[in-house]
Specification:
about 230 residues; alpha/beta; Rossmann fold; Arc Repressor Mutant, subunit A; 2 domains; 5-stranded parallel beta sheet; 5 strands; elongated
Length: about 230
């Protein structure tokens, strides 16, 4: 059975497909043939007759379609291609550079999981090793969602609600970083925890310090915790 990688960025699509072919397709979950596709319309050819693809890794932003529209188009193409009364148990994973911690994108994530049965979220800007772990879990029949998104999905508040309640106008991402910094974690630990680059964390910390009008991480931790408990000195 096939693994399909759908991405209109040709070089990215081919690179990811090659990496999966080398690292995953020959594992205990294989063998698989990994097929790079650059147009969503080409996917119908792989659903006309069984066996159907085991896994589809789908970029949400394909130029003509974006976000939920891509999932709707994918669903329509598959439903038209599959013979009547045939059962399709293909696992679908989102492969995207979208920051799902932003309020708008988080709503897309919720719909993707709830309405379209997406079982995996694989960030484009994440490490290759992390992506391969996610793919192995998906091929084993498990779900894979980065831990920071698991926390948000399990939270009663959406990122937009958190953002409105966050001290000093922090974005959801900044709030999460500030929370970890307040726990005394170093940038490289925060980066590893959230799947970010250390440089990205440093940039966010600088903005957070400015928003709190403090000079260092110790002052930030004190003020962040104080504002959460309603005892801020600012």
């Amino acid at each position: 059975m096939d693994i399909l990688v759908v991405d209109d960025e040709t070089s990215v699509c081919e690179c990811v497909a090659e990496k999966i072919e080398r690292e995953v397709a020959s594992s205990s979950y294989g063998p698989f043939t990994v097929v790079p596709l650059f147009r969503l319309s080409d996917i119908g050819d792989y659903f006309r007759n069984p066996p159907y693809p085991r896994l589809v890794i789908l970029d949400l932003d394909l130029g003509v379609t974006r976000g939920i529209a891509t999932l709707e188009c994918f669903r329509d193409i598959v439903s038209r291609a599959v013979p009547q009364d045939s059962k399709v148990d293909t696992t679908v994973a989102i492969f995207s550079g979208t920051d799902f911690l932003s309020p708008t994108s988080f709503e897309i994530l919720q719909r993707a999981v709830g309405e379209f049965g997406v079982r995996g979220i694989i960030p484009k800007n994440g490490k290759i090793a992390r992506m391969l772990v996610g793919l192995e879990r998906l091929l084993a029949g498990e779900d894979f969602v980065p831990i920071e998104l698991v926390r948000l999905l399990a939270s009663p508040s959406s990122p937009s609600e958190k953002c409105s309640k966050a001290p000093n106008g922090l974005t959801p991402r900044e709030y999460e970083i500030a929370e970890l910094v307040a726990e005394g974690l170093e940038d490289k630990v925060v980066a590893k925890r959230l799947g970010l680059q250390p440089g990205t964390v440093r940039q966010n910390v600088s903005r957070i310090l400015q928003k709190f009008s403090v000079d260092n991480r110790t002052q930030l931790a004190r003020e962040f915790m104080a504002q959460r408990t309603g005892n801020s000195s600012l």
